[in-house]
UniProtKB/TrEMBL annotation:
Keywords: ATP-binding, Hydrolase, Microtubule, Motor protein, Nucleotide-binding. One of its GO terms (biological process) is microtubule-based movement. Gene3D superfamilies: Kinesin motor domain. The lineage of its organism: Eukaryota, Fungi, Dikarya, Basidiomycota, Agaricomycotina. Residues 50-428 form the Kinesin motor domain. The keyword Nucleotide-binding applies. This is Kinesin-like protein. Signal peptide: none annotated. It comes from Mycena pura. It comes from the Eukaryota. GO terms for cellular component: kinesin complex; microtubule.
Length: 631
């Protein structure tokens, strides 16, 4: 039987006509509201978004359509020339970008009815969309730069960029370009931040002129199926398929809950050194032939740059995690793989599904400012991304996912799969609500007066401790704090705002608020770190108290309250993951339709949803059984 890509190719002339008609009727494409040249001057982005979603499609490559897709020569309407030979296949678009920001892609899904081929146009939304003509530099500027990902990592936060998509859709092309540009800009950005910090400290530090106060180290991990290895480990050994053999690296939580695989950690001191390291690691990345792309990447590659502020040795290190995900494959693509490769594809797809649950939960949590369980322990990939998923982490974090789709109409089914994977991450910023009711144990509810009181008490405690150490009887109130608390928390500000500052920003503020020689700058730094640590701790405790309440009553909580509209997050079952991949967008569309219809007539939507899911699963089992029978 001809595959759907072959069928699509056979009917290309008709599909192209339908597409042209649609194209003529649609509204003109909306470009970016701010041109690239003016981006630097534009107001910075809404910093409240924790998850940013972008779509990207690439141009068709030279002769790609002709080489990759073939019509069915036996079909009665096969496109033939005068000699009866099949005509070479020409490119036909499978996706159209209709708006750049907010991003909108329309996927053109071919179908077949009794009276001939049809085309359905499905719309998907994201924060940003990049069409085939957009250069890598613009993608980098509008994603990494505009969203301040480098500053976030330099300030002790965690920034994570993920490239997702079908094999051959352009993930590596995007990710490598981002890695090289990060190498180009990171050190300049750090020097600017370092100089600012030293200015606040007003010190005679030897680095005052250069701002060189950060240390950078790099690791590069590859996760292939369940097997993690170190891409920086040199090796000459290869297996039967010619793949390099590297030591297996354990991925697990240590006693204090950190996930720190034992990888080669290389210090880098300049753009050139970072660039060289990236090139070495990339050349080590394994590839293997699949049906889609002769040199496709079968693994997730995680480049982690850790940034230490040497003047704040107790503060958390910042991290930038750049992830080139393995190609998402549908069952059809992996059926020619050997057993080992099939297993890897299954594990990769499972990890991608788990990643989806985690990103979606993170996006939902940020949008609602409440607690949502993030199942990051379920998989090695998400364990490695713990810093962005662990709600107990004190570090601010941001995740960006760039979903890539092929430009060809023959790949539209894959494309809808990819777009419906990423589109649910798009969240609307939280609706403005009234202030949270006052809770003495939750700093997020404190007003300015209460915050100043608390800060004064904390700094007084420190001052009294050091006076006691020098045998001078302290009297609260008469203690010189060495800094002006109202400068740390000026009118209009409150603990909630301070809790959103990066640790170095809070320390900078305290250094600027110094108003007497009674304290050295190092003493201020130490106290500031302790006080902001205390504040973060109280906020975290307040958040986790809410979590514990939810966890305790979990049995009575409908799943949709914590995960979204439908009970999909409990899909830990491997078979369901496989079925989701097999059906692609159809899985979500069908279930969404059932839910919508049932809700509109006041039915028991949960029951109907589960029934619909069970019947999809049955269909998948039948398909699998048929495949096994055929083999
Ligand atoms: N925006 C683009 N402009 C021009 N060429 C591109 C673009 N994106 C990708 N390509 C080209 O398309 C081909 C496939 O891209 P790439 O290897 O990045 O895909 P991939 O999604 O990483 O695939 P895999 O999962 O197999 O690694 C490459 O030859 C790449 O150079």
């Amino acid at each position: 039987m001809a595959s759907s890509a072959t069928l699509t190719t056979t009917h290309l002339p008709t599909l192209r006509t339908i597409l042209d008609e649609w194209d003529q009727k649609r509204l003109p494409t909306k470009g970016f509201p701010v041109p690239l040249a003016e981006l630097q001057q534009a107001a910075s982005k809404d910093a409240s978004k924790d998850v940013i979603v972008a779509f990207r499609t690439r141009p068709p490559l030279h002769n790609e359509a002709a080489d990759k897709f073939h019509a069915d020569p036996d079909a009665k309407d096969a496109p033939l020339d005068d000699q009866g030979q099949l005509l070479p296949v020409e490119f036909c678009a499978g996706v159209t970008m209709t708006s750049a920001e907010p991003g909108v892609f329309v996927a053109h899904v071919p179908g077949m009815k009794w009276n001939g081929p049809t085309l359905t146009h499905k719309t998907y939304e994201a924060d940003l969309a990049f069409g085939p003509d957009v250069e890598n530099e613009e993608v980098y500027q509008r994603t990494v730069v505009v969203n301040d990902m480098l500053s976030l990592a330099i300030s002790g936060g965690v920034g994570c960029i993920l490239a997702y998509g079908q094999t051959g859709s352009g993930k590596t092309y995007t990710m490598e370009s981002i890695e090289h540009r990060v190498a180009r800009d990171l050190f300049d950005c750090a020097r600017v931040a370092g100089k600012r910090f030293l200015q606040a400290q007003d010190s005679q530090h030897p680095s005052a002129g250069t701002g060189d106060i950060f240390e950078f180290s790099v690791t590069f991990l590859e996760l292939m199926g369940k097997h993690a290895s170190d891409l920086l480990e040199p090796t000459d050994e290869v297996d039967a398929q010619g793949n390099p053999i590297r030591t297996e690296i354990a991925v697990r939580e240590d006693k204090v809950g950190n996930v720190r695989p034992n990888l080669i950690t290389t210090s880098v001191r300049s753009s050139a050194e970072l660039e060289e390291l990236i090139n070495t690691a990339l050349s080590h990345r394994r590839t293997s032939a699949t049906l889609r792309n002769a040199s496709s990447s079968r693994s997730h590659a995680l480049l982690t740059i850790t940034i230490k502020n040497t003047l704040l040795p107790y503060a958390d290190d910042g991290q930038l995690i750049l992830v080139d995900l393995a190609g998402s494959e549908r069952y059809e693509d992996s059926k020619d793989h050997d057993k080992q490769r099939m297993g890897e594809a299954r594990d990769n797809n499972k990890s991608l599904m788990n990643l989806k649950e985690c990103v979606r939960a993170k996006a939902k949590m940020a949008a609602e400012d409440g607690f949502v369980h993030i199942p990051w322990r379920a998989n090695k990939l998400t364990m490695l991304l713990k810093p962005i998923f662990d709600i107990e982490s004190r570090q601010p974090s941001k995740a960006m996912i760039i979903a890539h789709v092929s430009p060809h109409i023959q790949d539209t089914v894959h494309s809808t799969n990819t777009l419906s994977y990423a589109a649910p991450f798009l969240t609307i910023p939280p609706k403005p609500r009234g202030p949270m009711p006052y809770d003495a144990a939750d700093p997020r509810t404190w007003d300015h007066t209460k915050t100043v009181e608390w800060l004064t008490a904390k700094f007084t405690k420190h001052a009294m401790k050091s006076r006691m150490a020098s045998y001078k009887a302290p009297a609260p109130g008469s203690v010189d704090l060495g800094m002006d608390v109202l400068k740390i928390c000026p009118p209009g500000s409150s603990a909630k705002y301070l809790g959103n500052l990066y640790t170095p920003q809070f320390v900078e503020r305290c250094l600027e608020a110094r108003n007497s020689e009674a304290l050295t700058r190092d003493q201020i730094k130490f106290r500031a770190l302790d006080v902001i640590g205390n504040l973060f701790y109280l906020i975290l405790k307040a958040k986790t108290r809410k979590r514990n309440e939810i966890m305790r009553s979990r049995k009575t909580i409908a799943v949709e309250d914590t995960y979204g509209d439908a009970p999909r997050a409990l899909d830990d079952d491997a078979e369901i993951h496989e079925a989701q991949l097999y059906f692609g967008a159809e899985w979500y569309d069908t279930l969404h339709e059932v839910e919508k219809r049932s809700k509109s007539v006041g039915g028991n939507w949960r029951e109907e949803f589960m029934q619909a899911r069970a019947s999809l699963l049955e269909k998948y089992r039948a398909h699998k059984a048929a495949q096994t029978g055929n083999n």
